[in-house]
From TrEMBL:
A cellular-component GO term for this protein: cytosol
Keyword Oxidoreductase belongs to the record: yes
Family in the record: Belongs to the NAD(P)H dehydrogenase (quinone) family.
Superkingdom of this protein's organism: Bacteria
InterPro entries given in the database record: Flavodoxin_fold, Flavoprotein-like_sf, NAD(P)H_dehydrogenase_qn
Record-linked Gene3D superfamilies: 3.40.50.360
Record key words, sorted: Oxidoreductase
Annotated GO MF terms: NAD(P)H dehydrogenase (quinone) activity
The Flavodoxin-like fold domain, residue ranges: 1-192
PANTHER family referenced in this protein's UniProt entry, alphabetically: NAD P H OXIDOREDUCTASE-RELATED (PTHR10204), NAD(P)H DEHYDROGENASE [QUINONE] 1 ISOFORM 1 (PTHR10204:SF34)
Stated name of the protein: Flavodoxin family protein
Amino acid sequence: MNVFIVYAHPSANSLNGALKDYAVQRLQAAGHSVQVSDLYAMEWKPALEAGEVAGHAVLAEQEKLLWADVVIFQFPLWWFSMPAIMKGWVERVFTHGFAYGIGEHSELRWGDRYGEGTLAGKRAMLMVTAGGWESHYGPRGINGAVADLLFPIHHGILYYPGMDVLPPFLLYRSDRMDDARFAAACAALGKRLDALATTVPIPFRRQNYGDYDIPAMTLKVDIAPGVVGFGAHLA
Ligand SMILES: Cc1cc2nc3c(=O)[nH]c(=O)nc-3n(C[C@H](O)[C@H](O)[C@H](O)COP(=O)(O)O)c2cc1C
């Protein structure tokens, strides 16, 4: 398979740098082709300009997305989300007519998005390190459930242009790594990488297949009655 890693960390000598190197080596050893966009090393310009027209840098990233069978977004959790440089990559690369604003609008369809679109058929996975403990991100954890925190990325950024979203690879207590924990993390990551083609995606509901009223884009009353919030969009 073709695997595209979008990677955001300012230091090559970081935990993330080491995990990225491990992932590339593991994927290549399994026979996959790998491309990495190392956003800091590329000095990626994050700010979208007024009236920006996609230039060479943006088109090159779109080409990598079209080339990929699997797209991995790797980052340390910073203020409960992706680092700004990666958000800026999304804002500039996911252009109108590429990642949004495509497909017909009618009483039956509301464009090609949420499971349909340019990137349909591809798989995406987040690879995230977090300083907090797993329990802090549990269903009743103080930081909020990790599935809720990641919903805007999973559903709003990856599923929106059509990608199937795999459960994330998460590494907690990332500021407390020693050799044994790093070895265990690589082993766990390796299993996930080996299973990229077969892992069951998060079962987000598709937009144009009967679950939502169009054009209100609200779940029909008989679908998951009484369920509200992010979880309602899981089939
Ligand atoms: C600016 C910044 C914001 C952070 N925000 C969070 C956060 O919201 N939640 C969390 O669990 N850890 C947070 N951390 C801790 C990082 O996730 C942690 O340092 C990182 O995963 C360690 O990996 P690294 O050594 O590759 O940087 C933050 C760290 C920084 C520098």
